[in-house]
Amino acid sequence: MRPLRLIALFCGVLLSPALQAADYPSEKGQLQVEQLADGLEHPWALAFLPDGQGLLVSERPGRLRLFAEGRLSEPLGGVPEVYAEGQGGLLDVALSPGFAEDRLVYLSYAEAGADDRAGTAVGRGRLSGDRRQLEDFRVIFRQQPKLSTGIHFGSRLAFDRDGHLFVTLGENGERPTAQDLDKLQGKLVRLYPDGRVPEDNPFVGRAGARPEIWSYGHRNPQGAALNPWTGRLWTHEHGPRGGDEINIPEAGKNYGWPLATHGINYSFLPIPEARGKRVEGTEPPHYVWEKSPAISGMAFYDAGRFPAWQHSQFIGALAAQALIRLELDGDRIVHEERLLEGLATRIRDVRVGPDGYLYLLTDETNGKLLRLGLAPRE
């Protein structure tokens, strides 16, 4: 354990004193981990405000908090009511690409429907000048039909370079629906920022298909990020017992679930609908884990602070209780490293901060916000 740091710099704002710090080994040098905050109840996602204004953190029970000047705020007002059951609740948070002008914050969350069923919803509201509430919050998208009894909401948000909003949607635990084009379960959808459907989406005008769909055959995708070097969207999803996978989704393509999978049921029995690891007419994973780390969150490292991390992708692991670093050569994944295994905690989200550090959220009742840096080998 290293001595406590008295002062740390966060996006140009001084943090509170006496932050806990610890070192962990890695292939690229010594990892330096600082605990910036705790007391978060199952935090799910974070998003950085510009100009050193801090960051927003979502908590699954339905709270959105601001972390600034070393402190967590009280819950912000104007956040929608959420279905906080099982894996459901307040999930991802993302800023509008034009946040500096429009101050719009996007939230994805589990929304209750009829008969105790729920589905993913996305809405947006304007962050007030005092950063205490979201104003004029409006729902722009709802997963239909609502089928979840508390599992597989997916729910990551990502904007591409043209400003389209992508939303990952789990199949709500209803496996066959991932193949049904008239349903929004197990899909990646592509929208305009106000929720309208782009006319060049692959299924626009096709009878019996939802026009929002970009790709289908997904299980429970909880990672999405734009590759900064290629501009292509990457996603990852949970397999069942085995078969977590990364995809680079293309328009109109079928990514297989539940027909094609590297996993089996939690009961150790085969997936009833599965026909094998590779099935004609479906896309194989870009990368697959035969043993599931239970992946959540995704970030590409393109900052200048730690050159040894350039062209790396970082992914949180829940069951494996680790941070996964993947080395890239173009779109090829050429090496995998497991980090922070000694931390022994579920990592729900990972983001690259404007200061070039990695920021992590731990998934626990007393969830933590961590900052991760790299000291070069001596």
Structure, explained:
The chain has 378 residues and is mostly beta strands. The protein has a single domain (23-374), classed as TolB, C-terminal domain (Neuraminidase), CATH 2.120.10.30. The protein has one helix and 27 strands. The strands form seven sheets. Strands 3-4-27-26-25 form a five-stranded antiparallel sheet, with no helix packed on it. Strands 5-6-7-8 form a four-stranded antiparallel sheet, with no helix packed on it. Strands 9-10-11-12 form a four-stranded antiparallel sheet, with no helix packed on it. A hairpin with a 6-residue loop joins strand 5 (43-48) and strand 6.
List the SSEs and their pairings.
Layout: E1 9-10, E2 13-14, E3 20-26, E4 29-40, E5 43-48, E6 55-59, E7 63-68, E8 71-72, E9 90-95, H1 99-102, E10 104-112, E11 118-127, E12 134-142, E13 157-159, E14 165-168, E15 187-191, E16 213-216, E17 220-226, E18 233-238, E19 244-247, E20 287-289, E21 295-301, E22 312-317, E23 322-329, E24 332-339, E25 347-352, E26 358-362, E27 367-375
